[in-house]
Amino acid sequence: MYDAIVVGAGVIGSWTALHLAKKGRKVLLLEQYERSHTRGSSHGQSRIIRKLYVDQHHAQLMDEAYQLWNELQTSSGIDFFKINGHIAVCKKSVGKIKKLVGSCEKYGIEHKALDGSHVNAEFPGLKFNDDFEAVYEQTGGVLNADKCLQAIQEELIKFGGELHENEKVLNIEPINASRVNVQTSTAEYDSASVILCCGSWTNKLLKPLDLQLPLKACKVQVTYWKEKVPNIYSKFPSLIYYKVDAVSMYGLPCEAYPGYFKFCFHYHFVIDPDDEEDLEKHPSREEAKMRMEEITEVVKNHLPYLVPEPKVMEPCMLTTTPDTDYILDRHPRHKNIIIGAGMSGHGFKTAPIVGKILSEFADDVTPSYAVHYYVIDRFHT
Ligand SMILES: Cc1cc2nc3c(=O)[nH]c(=O)nc-3n(C[C@H](O)[C@H](O)[C@H](O)COP(=O)(O)OP(=O)(O)OC[C@H]3O[C@@H](n4cnc5c(N)ncnc54)[C@H](O)[C@@H]3O)c2cc1C
Fold this sequence. Notes:
By secondary structure, the chain is of the alpha+beta class.
């Protein structure tokens, strides 16, 4: 009998299990594939971390998220966190940067507002005219995702948590308010609570529990561009280029491919996470082609020291909700079945806090942060 079983050893499940293990709970983390698999959302070498958010409920998570990532880096001895700064750029006419600067002032985030031409002077490697404006956040940085997962999971084991890889959860059977039965590909367990952190697979496990969430499992193309001048982008800040308020392209230096800059369109295909779909044959491929042409134009015009042709392309999964906000809630009828899903394109940096909130649900204590933003009810399912 476990206090908690966490399903899914991505960044959310791993942090949730770690919080529980640190509180002395008997916790089991189950992962259907190998720990280092690349079929979910949490693998790879780089994720942006920044405090710069317009929404207060995201911004308020970031101070403690930074603290917990820093503590983990120290305690694990694994070097996964670099502060390189973060820069957001957009056309003045959109008004996005004004909102971000307002948010920096409101939440005391160290920043510098810049006109397009000042951006070029401060960051050779970027090219914008004064139709554009930008905000630079000193505290922005990059997390090495693979090393983060390694650190979280090693700490979990150090604190007495169990992690079983290659063990797929096949069925979850609620017994009563303090007991859930979990059947896997190799065993069967009882637990006081179960926390589903299954990313794109969440609805598959929820189906027999009569719940389907408005989640979309999506595949994204991560694109890497070769530098024309060596090392010009290797110590660069992470970058978000907002085409309009809610449509963006993002870039960051990458250790995975020295001499390349990761710069991607935040665009995705809806797929079944278990289908090995060939994106070249996907119904949205024409749209994807247009997006690729668009990002290539942006590289040509604004990142002049990159060869304007993607040299490496890698697929990755995303799980989105209609409002791109997370779902952190309990199953409406089975309160000891807890769900952490729909982390969309920005769930990595906040994972220490999301994991903390989910662990508080499991412990049945009041969450440390306001959670009404993340409830299932907002979608009227
Ligand atoms: C290309 C890309 C770039 C991104 N950039 C950023 C960024 O810069 N900054 C940022 O903050 N965020 C970013 N994100 C988002 C962030 O990476 C995700 O929000 C986060 O990784 C989601 O983690 P997760 O644990 O919810 O999902 P996952 O990592 O997918 O983990 C779910 C796990 O559950 C397992 N599982 C599912 N079903 C079962 C089952 N039945 N039994 C056992 N195991 C099961 C899966 O195998 C998987 O390992 C990015 C995402 C992508 C794809």
